[in-house]
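User: I'm preparing a small set of examples for a lab meeting where we compare how different chains pack in three dimensions. I only have the primary sequence for this one, and I'd like the structure in C-alpha coordinate form so I can line it up with the others. Please keep the answer compact; I'll paste it straight into my notes.
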Amino acid sequence: MDLALLWFGIVGFLFIGYFVLDGFDFGVGMSMPFLAKDDTDKRLLINTIGPVWDLNETWLIVAGASLFAAFPYWYATLFDGFYLALLLILLALIARGVSFEYRRLGKSPRWKAWFDGMIVVGSAVPALLWGVAFANIVQGVAIDETGTYTGSLFDLLNVYAILGGLTTLLLFFTHGVQFVALKTEGEMRERAHALAKRSGLLTIVVAAAFLVWTAVQHLDVAHLPLIVALAGGAAVALIGSWLANAGGHERWAFGLMATTIALAVGTILAAMYPNVMPSTTDPAFSLTIENASSSAYTLQIMTWLAVFSMPLVLAYQGWTYWVFRKRLTRDLIPADAH
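Assistant: Understood. Below is the C-alpha coordinate output for the 338-residue chain.
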Protein backbone atom coordinates (compact mmCIF):
# COMPACT_ATOMS: atom_id res chain seq x y z
CA MET A 1 0.00 0.00 0.00
CA ASP A 2 1.22 3.50 -0.86
CA LEU A 3 1.10 5.10 2.59
CA ALA A 4 1.85 8.58 1.25
CA LEU A 5 -1.22 8.38 -0.98
CA LEU A 6 -3.24 6.97 1.91
CA TRP A 7 -2.31 9.92 4.11
CA PHE A 8 -3.10 12.36 1.32
CA GLY A 9 -6.59 10.85 1.45
CA ILE A 10 -6.71 11.01 5.27
CA VAL A 11 -5.64 14.66 5.35
CA GLY A 12 -8.25 15.37 2.68
CA PHE A 13 -10.91 13.56 4.72
CA LEU A 14 -10.01 15.61 7.81
CA PHE A 15 -10.31 18.89 5.90
CA ILE A 16 -13.62 17.75 4.44
CA GLY A 17 -14.87 17.01 7.95
CA TYR A 18 -13.65 20.40 9.14
CA PHE A 19 -15.29 22.34 6.32
CA VAL A 20 -18.58 20.46 6.64
CA LEU A 21 -18.81 20.80 10.42
CA ASP A 22 -17.15 24.11 11.19
CA GLY A 23 -18.63 25.41 7.95
CA PHE A 24 -22.14 25.58 9.37
CA ASP A 25 -20.69 27.13 12.54
CA PHE A 26 -19.30 29.92 10.38
CA GLY A 27 -22.63 30.22 8.62
CA VAL A 28 -24.57 30.59 11.86
CA GLY A 29 -22.17 33.29 13.02
CA MET A 30 -22.41 35.20 9.73
CA SER A 31 -26.21 34.96 9.72
CA MET A 32 -26.71 36.85 12.99
CA PRO A 33 -27.22 40.31 11.39
CA PHE A 34 -29.76 38.81 8.96
CA LEU A 35 -31.75 36.48 11.23
CA ALA A 36 -31.64 38.03 14.70
CA LYS A 37 -34.09 40.81 15.53
CA ASP A 38 -33.24 41.15 19.21
CA ASP A 39 -30.86 39.84 21.86
CA THR A 40 -32.98 36.74 22.50
CA ASP A 41 -32.70 35.80 18.83
CA LYS A 42 -28.92 36.22 18.98
CA ARG A 43 -28.66 33.98 22.04
CA LEU A 44 -30.89 31.44 20.30
CA LEU A 45 -28.57 31.38 17.27
CA ILE A 46 -25.49 31.01 19.46
CA ASN A 47 -27.14 28.19 21.42
CA THR A 48 -27.73 26.18 18.22
CA ILE A 49 -23.97 25.67 17.91
CA GLY A 50 -23.02 26.18 21.56
CA PRO A 51 -22.49 22.49 22.41
CA VAL A 52 -20.55 21.63 19.25
CA TRP A 53 -18.59 24.58 17.82
CA ASP A 54 -15.39 23.88 19.76
CA LEU A 55 -15.65 20.15 18.99
CA ASN A 56 -15.95 20.99 15.30
CA GLU A 57 -12.79 23.08 15.40
CA THR A 58 -10.76 20.12 16.66
CA TRP A 59 -10.96 18.75 13.11
CA LEU A 60 -8.70 21.62 12.03
CA ILE A 61 -6.21 20.83 14.81
CA VAL A 62 -6.08 17.17 13.84
CA ALA A 63 -5.84 18.03 10.13
CA GLY A 64 -2.97 20.45 10.80
CA ALA A 65 -1.14 17.97 13.01
CA SER A 66 -1.58 15.21 10.41
CA LEU A 67 -0.34 17.51 7.67
CA PHE A 68 2.73 18.40 9.74
CA ALA A 69 3.58 14.78 10.52
CA ALA A 70 2.73 13.15 7.18
CA PHE A 71 3.79 15.93 4.79
CA PRO A 72 6.33 18.19 6.56
CA TYR A 73 7.57 19.83 3.34
CA TRP A 74 4.01 20.65 2.28
CA TYR A 75 3.33 22.05 5.75
CA ALA A 76 6.50 24.17 5.70
CA THR A 77 5.88 25.61 2.23
CA LEU A 78 2.20 26.25 2.98
CA PHE A 79 2.93 28.22 6.14
CA ASP A 80 5.82 30.03 4.46
CA GLY A 81 3.76 31.23 1.52
CA PHE A 82 0.39 31.69 3.22
CA TYR A 83 1.68 32.92 6.57
CA LEU A 84 -0.32 36.16 6.74
CA ALA A 85 -3.54 34.56 5.49
CA LEU A 86 -3.27 31.68 7.97
CA LEU A 87 -2.43 34.13 10.76
CA LEU A 88 -5.59 36.10 9.98
CA ILE A 89 -7.60 32.88 10.08
CA LEU A 90 -6.10 31.98 13.45
CA LEU A 91 -6.79 35.43 14.92
CA ALA A 92 -10.36 35.32 13.61
CA LEU A 93 -10.95 31.89 15.17
CA ILE A 94 -9.56 33.12 18.49
CA ALA A 95 -11.77 36.22 18.41
CA ARG A 96 -14.84 34.13 17.62
CA GLY A 97 -14.14 31.61 20.38
CA VAL A 98 -13.51 34.34 22.95
CA SER A 99 -16.75 36.07 21.94
CA PHE A 100 -18.85 32.95 22.53
CA GLU A 101 -17.50 32.72 26.09
CA TYR A 102 -17.32 36.41 27.05
CA ARG A 103 -20.48 37.78 25.47
CA ARG A 104 -22.66 36.53 28.31
CA LEU A 105 -20.44 38.07 31.01
CA GLY A 106 -21.52 41.65 30.31
CA LYS A 107 -24.98 43.23 30.62
CA SER A 108 -24.59 46.43 28.61
CA PRO A 109 -25.75 46.55 24.96
CA ARG A 110 -22.38 47.97 23.93
CA TRP A 111 -20.54 45.00 25.46
CA LYS A 112 -22.76 42.52 23.65
CA ALA A 113 -22.63 44.44 20.37
CA TRP A 114 -18.82 44.37 20.45
CA PHE A 115 -18.67 40.61 20.84
CA ASP A 116 -21.51 40.06 18.37
CA GLY A 117 -19.43 41.90 15.79
CA MET A 118 -16.43 39.72 16.61
CA ILE A 119 -18.55 36.59 16.09
CA VAL A 120 -19.66 37.79 12.66
CA VAL A 121 -16.19 38.88 11.52
CA GLY A 122 -14.54 35.87 13.16
CA SER A 123 -16.84 33.63 11.14
CA ALA A 124 -16.62 35.47 7.80
CA VAL A 125 -12.84 35.86 7.63
CA PRO A 126 -11.98 32.12 7.84
CA ALA A 127 -14.88 31.25 5.53
CA LEU A 128 -13.42 33.57 2.88
CA LEU A 129 -9.69 32.94 3.37
CA TRP A 130 -9.91 29.13 3.40
CA GLY A 131 -11.36 29.31 -0.08
CA VAL A 132 -8.67 31.76 -1.21
CA ALA A 133 -5.93 29.50 0.17
CA PHE A 134 -7.15 26.27 -1.40
CA ALA A 135 -7.89 27.96 -4.74
CA ASN A 136 -4.29 29.17 -4.85
CA ILE A 137 -3.02 25.68 -4.09
CA VAL A 138 -5.05 24.28 -7.00
CA GLN A 139 -3.92 27.03 -9.37
CA GLY A 140 -0.29 26.85 -8.26
CA VAL A 141 2.01 29.32 -6.52
CA ALA A 142 5.50 30.66 -7.08
CA ILE A 143 7.85 28.07 -5.53
CA ASP A 144 11.59 27.86 -6.24
CA GLU A 145 13.82 24.80 -6.29
CA THR A 146 14.21 24.86 -2.48
CA GLY A 147 10.44 24.77 -1.91
CA THR A 148 10.36 28.41 -0.81
CA TYR A 149 7.45 30.65 -1.77
CA THR A 150 8.77 33.62 -3.77
CA GLY A 151 5.54 35.55 -4.33
CA SER A 152 3.70 38.09 -2.19
CA LEU A 153 0.34 38.34 -0.46
CA PHE A 154 -1.06 40.29 -3.41
CA ASP A 155 -0.15 37.42 -5.75
CA LEU A 156 -2.54 35.26 -3.73
CA LEU A 157 -5.40 37.74 -4.23
CA ASN A 158 -6.01 36.86 -7.87
CA VAL A 159 -9.44 36.59 -9.50
CA TYR A 160 -9.62 32.80 -9.36
CA ALA A 161 -8.64 32.71 -5.67
CA ILE A 162 -11.12 35.43 -4.73
CA LEU A 163 -13.84 33.50 -6.56
CA GLY A 164 -12.85 30.44 -4.53
CA GLY A 165 -13.11 32.48 -1.35
CA LEU A 166 -16.55 33.77 -2.27
CA THR A 167 -17.61 30.20 -3.02
CA THR A 168 -16.66 28.90 0.43
CA LEU A 169 -18.12 32.01 2.07
CA LEU A 170 -21.51 31.49 0.41
CA LEU A 171 -21.50 27.72 0.85
CA PHE A 172 -20.82 28.05 4.57
CA PHE A 173 -23.33 30.87 4.96
CA THR A 174 -26.14 28.89 3.36
CA HIS A 175 -25.07 25.74 5.21
CA GLY A 176 -25.32 27.61 8.51
CA VAL A 177 -28.71 29.12 7.72
CA GLN A 178 -30.01 25.65 6.85
CA PHE A 179 -28.68 24.41 10.18
CA VAL A 180 -30.63 27.16 11.95
CA ALA A 181 -33.80 26.01 10.15
CA LEU A 182 -33.02 22.45 11.25
CA LYS A 183 -32.40 23.37 14.90
CA THR A 184 -35.12 25.95 15.65
CA GLU A 185 -38.87 26.35 15.70
CA GLY A 186 -41.27 29.21 15.08
CA GLU A 187 -40.43 32.50 13.45
CA MET A 188 -36.68 31.92 13.47
CA ARG A 189 -37.17 28.72 11.49
CA GLU A 190 -39.31 30.54 8.91
CA ARG A 191 -36.80 33.36 8.54
CA ALA A 192 -34.00 30.84 8.07
CA HIS A 193 -35.96 29.06 5.32
CA ALA A 194 -36.53 32.33 3.47
CA LEU A 195 -32.91 33.45 3.81
CA ALA A 196 -31.58 30.07 2.64
CA LYS A 197 -33.69 30.38 -0.52
CA ARG A 198 -32.12 33.73 -1.39
CA SER A 199 -28.55 32.90 -0.44
CA GLY A 200 -28.84 29.49 -2.06
CA LEU A 201 -29.50 30.96 -5.50
CA LEU A 202 -26.43 33.20 -5.28
CA THR A 203 -24.37 30.26 -3.99
CA ILE A 204 -25.39 28.13 -6.98
CA VAL A 205 -24.21 30.79 -9.45
CA VAL A 206 -20.87 31.50 -7.76
CA ALA A 207 -20.06 27.86 -6.97
CA ALA A 208 -20.88 26.78 -10.54
CA ALA A 209 -18.51 29.41 -11.93
CA PHE A 210 -15.70 28.29 -9.62
CA LEU A 211 -16.14 24.56 -10.30
CA VAL A 212 -16.30 25.08 -14.08
CA TRP A 213 -13.18 27.26 -13.98
CA THR A 214 -11.41 24.59 -11.92
CA ALA A 215 -12.29 21.88 -14.43
CA VAL A 216 -11.26 24.04 -17.42
CA GLN A 217 -7.86 24.69 -15.83
CA HIS A 218 -7.20 20.93 -15.80
CA LEU A 219 -8.35 19.89 -19.28
CA ASP A 220 -4.95 18.31 -19.98
CA VAL A 221 -4.80 15.98 -16.98
CA ALA A 222 -5.44 12.27 -17.29
CA HIS A 223 -7.95 12.17 -14.43
CA LEU A 224 -10.16 14.95 -15.84
CA PRO A 225 -13.22 12.62 -15.83
CA LEU A 226 -12.86 12.26 -12.04
CA ILE A 227 -12.68 16.04 -11.60
CA VAL A 228 -15.75 16.53 -13.79
CA ALA A 229 -17.65 13.78 -11.96
CA LEU A 230 -16.92 15.29 -8.54
CA ALA A 231 -17.74 18.82 -9.70
CA GLY A 232 -20.93 17.60 -11.36
CA GLY A 233 -21.94 15.73 -8.22
CA ALA A 234 -21.35 18.87 -6.14
CA ALA A 235 -23.52 20.90 -8.52
CA VAL A 236 -26.36 18.37 -8.43
CA ALA A 237 -26.21 18.16 -4.62
CA LEU A 238 -26.22 21.96 -4.33
CA ILE A 239 -29.30 22.32 -6.53
CA GLY A 240 -30.96 19.46 -4.65
CA SER A 241 -30.21 21.21 -1.36
CA TRP A 242 -31.90 24.40 -2.58
CA LEU A 243 -34.95 22.46 -3.76
CA ALA A 244 -35.18 20.56 -0.48
CA ASN A 245 -35.04 23.79 1.49
CA ALA A 246 -37.71 25.35 -0.73
CA GLY A 247 -39.89 22.32 0.02
CA GLY A 248 -39.36 22.61 3.77
CA HIS A 249 -37.24 19.47 4.11
CA GLU A 250 -34.55 20.71 6.48
CA ARG A 251 -32.71 17.42 6.97
CA TRP A 252 -32.41 16.78 3.25
CA ALA A 253 -31.35 20.38 2.60
CA PHE A 254 -28.68 20.26 5.28
CA GLY A 255 -27.45 16.80 4.28
CA LEU A 256 -27.22 17.69 0.58
CA MET A 257 -25.34 20.89 1.40
CA ALA A 258 -22.87 18.85 3.46
CA THR A 259 -22.52 16.56 0.44
CA THR A 260 -21.93 19.60 -1.78
CA ILE A 261 -19.09 20.84 0.43
CA ALA A 262 -17.54 17.37 0.64
CA LEU A 263 -17.63 16.90 -3.15
CA ALA A 264 -16.33 20.44 -3.75
CA VAL A 265 -13.31 19.76 -1.55
CA GLY A 266 -12.95 16.41 -3.30
CA THR A 267 -12.86 18.29 -6.63
CA ILE A 268 -10.05 20.49 -5.31
CA LEU A 269 -8.06 17.49 -4.07
CA ALA A 270 -8.52 15.70 -7.40
CA ALA A 271 -7.40 18.83 -9.27
CA MET A 272 -4.26 19.00 -7.10
CA TYR A 273 -3.28 15.33 -7.57
CA PRO A 274 -0.49 14.21 -7.72
CA ASN A 275 0.79 17.58 -6.50
CA VAL A 276 0.23 19.08 -3.08
CA MET A 277 1.78 22.46 -3.97
CA PRO A 278 2.10 23.01 -7.74
CA SER A 279 4.83 25.46 -8.75
CA THR A 280 4.12 28.14 -11.33
CA THR A 281 7.83 28.95 -11.53
CA ASP A 282 8.76 25.53 -12.92
CA PRO A 283 6.68 22.33 -12.76
CA ALA A 284 9.85 20.50 -11.70
CA PHE A 285 9.82 22.51 -8.45
CA SER A 286 6.31 21.32 -7.50
CA LEU A 287 5.78 19.46 -4.25
CA THR A 288 4.12 16.11 -4.88
CA ILE A 289 2.57 13.49 -2.64
CA GLU A 290 5.77 11.47 -2.83
CA ASN A 291 8.50 14.09 -2.43
CA ALA A 292 6.68 16.04 0.31
CA SER A 293 5.86 13.07 2.57
CA SER A 294 7.58 11.74 5.67
CA SER A 295 9.52 8.49 5.80
CA ALA A 296 7.74 5.17 5.35
CA TYR A 297 8.35 4.27 9.03
CA THR A 298 6.73 7.52 10.24
CA LEU A 299 3.70 6.91 8.04
CA GLN A 300 3.40 3.34 9.31
CA ILE A 301 3.29 4.51 12.95
CA MET A 302 0.75 7.21 12.08
CA THR A 303 -1.42 4.71 10.24
CA TRP A 304 -1.67 2.39 13.26
CA LEU A 305 -2.52 5.36 15.50
CA ALA A 306 -5.22 6.46 13.08
CA VAL A 307 -6.72 2.96 12.90
CA PHE A 308 -7.31 2.90 16.67
CA SER A 309 -8.09 6.55 17.38
CA MET A 310 -10.26 7.77 14.49
CA PRO A 311 -13.20 5.39 15.11
CA LEU A 312 -13.31 6.52 18.76
CA VAL A 313 -13.25 10.19 17.79
CA LEU A 314 -15.98 9.73 15.19
CA ALA A 315 -18.13 7.76 17.63
CA TYR A 316 -17.78 10.43 20.31
CA GLN A 317 -18.70 13.22 17.91
CA GLY A 318 -21.70 11.29 16.64
CA TRP A 319 -22.85 10.71 20.22
CA THR A 320 -22.50 14.43 20.98
CA TYR A 321 -24.70 15.41 18.06
CA TRP A 322 -27.26 12.80 19.09
CA VAL A 323 -27.44 14.15 22.64
CA PHE A 324 -28.00 17.73 21.43
CA ARG A 325 -30.32 16.84 18.54
CA LYS A 326 -33.49 18.60 19.79
CA ARG A 327 -34.81 21.83 18.33
CA LEU A 328 -34.53 25.10 20.24
CA THR A 329 -37.06 27.89 20.70
CA ARG A 330 -37.08 31.41 22.09
CA ASP A 331 -39.03 30.10 25.10
CA LEU A 332 -35.94 28.15 26.18
CA ILE A 333 -33.92 31.38 26.49
CA PRO A 334 -34.43 32.87 29.98
CA ALA A 335 -35.37 36.55 29.86
CA ASP A 336 -32.72 37.48 32.42
CA ALA A 337 -29.94 35.40 30.85
CA HIS A 338 -26.83 37.14 29.60
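A couple of notes for your slides: The beta strands are 275-277, 287-288. The CA atoms of residues 91 and 122 lie 8 Å apart.

User: Perfect, thanks.
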